Amino acid sequence: MLIVASDIDVLARFGRALADPIRCRILLALRESPAYPAALADTLGISRTRLSNHLACLRDCGLVITSPDGRRTRYELADERIGHALDDLRVAVVAVEADKTCPDAASKGCC
After folding, report:
1. Does the structure show a pLDDT above 50 at 7?
2. Where is the HTH arsR-type domain (predicted)?
3. Alpha-carbon span 66 to 78, nearest angstrom
C-alpha cells in the first residue's frame, strides 16, 4: 500500500481534532445526533463562546458541517463514517491498554 502525503495530512488533521477533550466530547455527541450549539453547550457544560471556537476548529478540519434551519444552525458529522471511526478507534485503544494516558494530554492545539 502506497502512503501518500495527503493520507498523512488527513490523519494528522483528525488526530489534532481528537487531541482536545472538548472536541472529542463534541464529536461523540454529534455521533448520536445532529445538534444546535445552544443545546451542545448545555449538554457539555461549557460556554457558547468556547463551544463556538471548538466547532469552528472541527468545521475547518472538515469533520463537522452546518445546516441552516431557519435562524439557527445545526451541526452534524460531515460523514456518518466519522462516527464509526470514532467507535472503532475508542474500542481499539481500550483493547490495547485502557490504563495508559498520553503524556501530552494537557497540551492544547487546534487543527
Report:
1. yes
2. 3-100
3. 9
Phi, psi (degrees; rounded to nearest 5) at 75: -110, 145
* Domain locations in the chain as residue ranges: 14-95
Global pTM reads 0.81
Q: Report the distance separating Cα 33 and Cα 9, nearest Å.
A: 27
By CB neighbour count within 10 A (0-12 exposed, 13-18 middle, 19+ buried), where does 108 fall? exposed
Tell me whether strands 72-77 and 64-69 are parallel, antiparallel or unpaired: antiparallel
The per-residue pLDDT of the chain, averaged, comes to 87
What are the backbone angles phi and psi of residue 67, rounded to the nearest 5°?
A: -130, 120
